Amino acid sequence: MTVRYEDFAALTQDSPTARTEWAAVVAAWAEPHRSYHDLAHLAAVLGLAGELAGHAADPTAVALAAWYHDVAYDPTASDNEEVSAQRAEVGLRGLVPDDRLAEVARLVRLTAGHDPADDDADGAVLCDADLAVLASPPAAYAAYASAVRAEYGHLDDATFTAGRTAVLESLLALPALFRTPTAQPWTAPARANLTAELELLRARAS
Asked: Which InterPro entries does this UniProt record tie to the protein (predicted)?
């Protein structure tokens, strides 16, 4: 899937304001420090959100949240989801109804922990689309993990290993990695990948 203005405009409206906003969003996702959280990841999440749209209460809000969920990505910061949500609140103002804008911002903030409530259909779709990479074949998962390490190149190995270990442990501790019925088959390969990476990191640390 490519990242097209036409897809963005279909969620908002075709206007000079929408085109300007789309260009700014794409430019943010194309920042050179992004090795994983880049335009390819955006395209993948948009595609998966579309595939899972039948499970969503507001597929348009989910798709817009996918556009913005990592629009702000600074590996040295701890508030990327909050900044991304605020970026959506500013950039989409006047392009979508206020209630949908509030839902988009809520969904973006939800990606900080990927733990939607049981009755949160929109949150389930967005989180499943964002975490789908965890269920990749082992070689593709290894490439993903390497790309994440590259984004944290400013950290020494010990610091990165501690932080990454905490992330993997938190993911494995979630009540469920995937929430939509369509994504349930992804659970076993994702848990296998996460466990294998965690074991490798623990071995290196020791």
From this structure: HD_phosphohydro (IPR009218)
CATH topology of domain 5-205: Hypothetical protein af1432 (1.10.3210)
Distances (CA, A) of 94 to 12, 83, 88, 108, 177: 9, 19, 11, 18, 35
State which H helix or E strand residue 174 sits in. Answer: none
| Structural domain spans, the chain | 5-205
